[in-house]
Amino acid sequence: MKKIVSLAVFVAVSTTVADAAPSYIKRDDANGYRVTYDYMDKANNGWYIGGRVGLNLMSWKNDYSTNAPNANELHDDDYFEALFGGGVFVGKSLNYLWRAEIEGGMLGQFEDEFGGTTFKMAIPYLMANGYRDFANGMYVGAGAGIALPKTKLQGRDFTGGDSSQRAVSPIVGLMVGYSHRLDYNLTLDLRYRLSGLYGTEHARTFIYKEDGETYDIKNEIGLMLENAVSLGVRYNF
Predict the structure, then answer these.
(1) CA angle in degrees (0–180, nearest 5) for 173-175-181
(2) DSSP 3-state of 10
């Protein structure tokens, strides 16, 4: 009698466990259990897309030169500005440790006015990035690509030259960040990036008020450094 009772209890417990099995494990009466959804592979492999917004601390120098008299009145400007930027990206998990992606966006836009002259700058970019993920959610990475910084010099005294100038500059960056998985498809991403690129060399002609003659002015932007903290979301297919 005890054996019959024990058998009944075992069958009841087994049935309860079977009913409590996760949704991705299905009961097959002929072959027992079968896994219909490999959730670990989906969580760590495959294509993904996403976007990010961030705050970029950009530093650069506007190096001005001119052949006009009293050129000592023209001074160079050093900038360290907080600019809002962002971008979109598409990538693929190569395995559980490595990811590769293409990212494009805007490092930031800036505008300044001095002595009746307006200086504007915008910096779109396109980069290829590689990341190494760690089990605790941290990751490191590096990227390289091109930036297309564009400057505008506008003012009432300019008479010639292009008001805007664009440069094609290589851009390289180092990244460190943290990923937090919200569910099987969505991942929250906090990233810091240090990157560098070169700006434009922009020349225009203007009328000098003192003698009414025309002279040239040139603005050269050298190395630009970006310190960017951004928050992004990834959707894993």
Answers:
(1) 145
(2) helix
Whole-angstrom Cα distance, residue 211 to residue 157?
Answer: 13
Look at the alpha carbons of 171, 172, 178, 182 in this order and tell me if their dihedral is positive or negative. positive
Query: Could you tell me how far CA 80 lies from the centroid of its own chain?
Result: 20
Closest to 86 in 3D by CA, of 60, 111, 130, 51: 51
Q: What DSSP assignment string belongs to 108-146?
A: EEEEEEETTEEEEEEEEEEEEEEEEE-TTSEEEEEEEEE
Q: What is the pLDDT of residues 145-182, one digit of tens each?
A: 999 999 999 988 888 889 999 999 999 999 999 999 99
According to DSSP, the residues that pair with 97 across neighbouring strands are: none
Report strand pairing: 117-133 vs 98-114. antiparallel
Which residues have a Cβ under 8 Å from the Cβ of 57 and sit 6 or more positions away? 80, 81, 82, 83, 226, 227, 228
Dist. CA 106–CA 116, nearest whole Å: 27
DSSP state of 210: T
Report helix, strand and coil shares of the chain as percent, to nearest 5: 10, 65, 20
Mean pLDDT of the region 32-46: 52
Q: Backbone phi, then psi, for 210, in 5-degree steps?
A: -65, -40
Q: Residue 73 gets which letter from DSSP?
A: G
* Token pair belonging to 136: 């605790």
How far is 109 from 123, CA to CA, in rounded Å? 7
Residues 86 and 125: their CA atoms lie apart, in Å, by: 10
